[in-house]
Amino acid sequence: MKRVAVRNLRLCTKDCICLYVCPTGATDTENSIIDVEKCIGCENCALACPSSAISMVPLEYPKQQPKDDAMVATLNTLAQSKADQEKMALQIAGGTSKDSLYRLMKAIAKSERILAEDVMREAGFMLPQSHNAHAILEELIETPPTPDFPAEAARKLMENLPDNG
Amino acid sequence: MKYICSICGYIYDEAAEGTPFEALPADWKCPLCKAAKTDFKPEAAPAPEDTAPQTATADTATNTVPEADLKKLSAGQLAALCSNLARGCEKMYKEEEAGLFRELAAYFTKITPAIPDADVEKLASLLQGDINSYDSIRAQADALKDRGAARVCVWGEKVTRMLSSLVTRYLHDGESLLAGTDIWVCTACGFVYIGETPPELCPVCKVPDWKFEKIERRAKA
Ligand code: SF4
Ligand code: SF4
What we know:
- The complex is a heterodimer.
- Chain A is mainly alpha-helical.
- Chain A is built from six helices and two strands.
- Chain A is 49% helix and 6% strand.
- Chain A has a two-stranded antiparallel sheet with strand order 1-2.
- Helix content of chain B is 44%, strand content 9%.
- Chain B has helices at residues 14-17, 53-60, 75-91, 95-111, 120-143, 147-173; strands at residues 2-5, 11-13, 40-42, 183-186, 192-194, 212-214.
- In chain B, helix 2 (53-60) crosses helix 5 (120-143), helix 3 (75-91) runs antiparallel to helix 4 and helix 5 runs antiparallel to helix 6.
- Chain B is globular.
- Chain B starts with a strand and ends in a 7-residue tail after the last strand.
- Classes of the chains: A mainly alpha, B mainly alpha.
- Chains A and B meet through helix 3, helix 4, helix 5 and helix 6 of A and helix 3, helix 4, helix 5, helix 6 and strand 4 of B.
- Bound molecules: iron/sulfur cluster (SF4) (2 copies).
- One iron/sulfur cluster binds next to loops of chain A.
């Protein structure tokens, strides 16, 4: 499986050994993002980096684990509940001038979204390249929920992230 | 006797602390995650006051999706689905795709219909409904050996308990809850923490403090 190096900019302390060990100059870029066109996946940089800031990632991701239908139904219900709570918290935050209530509701809305994201991930939407994700995008492009649905973004995603089955 | 925090697992050992748990003031908080005293359960004993039957049965009905609608996801679900895939793209260092999924997520957040009569009490009862549902979801996940779904339950239940605990405190304390202090959200698991600085490690999912995001005050119009 072909791999390329990616640098975690948050961990990278800049300006050290990866520049010297790369046989193709892929690590030497002005924006610190490793050039995937040049990278040949030799792993030299990842092994040399003193900050463990470089990982080798596959160009193609493995297929997603299949999910049980009943489990998905349960998880969808849970996600809906989290989504309702997020919406409610945002409505309360939007309608109050009280500082504690405002911040508490904003915090709760953010938390609920993270919870719902985690649930949706386990409900069959782990990989952006999965067939499930593709099917949803396709359906949305065909039957947009409202006229202002950003179909261009959805189309671009289908193009950039090939369905891995 | 030992008492265990149901959110972060902190153990209050009466023998080591010297003060009986019952003698602690009502506003005493978990030293690790600041959960309320009522979020502690005696070790290895069934928690009698935990059942809360009156709120449970009435409210679970309001937040269910008909099973036939499984294929058709709501705007709220699609918003979370898309922002989750945006995070997935971020983890793969696919910035452009992450941005596109965020755009879709923002669209679905915008078109999510308002919930009628949103107020703090109603939110509190929905949170309680979720807390009551975790046992059966976990049982289903365990029966199917779905480790991922089981993990969602472990983190989700703890975070939901914390949210419920904070809403209850707000209903009791009102505006003094955040007076002169800050509120933080763990961007990995959703745990919410009140304090001047975030905890060194998230008490629920153990990520470091820089994964916490501070909630800013409303910008003055
Ligand atoms: S070796 Fe590692 S820390 Fe140093 S510049 Fe390269 S990626 Fe950054
Ligand atoms: S994996 Fe090899 S070719 Fe790719 S950036 Fe690192 S050192 Fe350069």
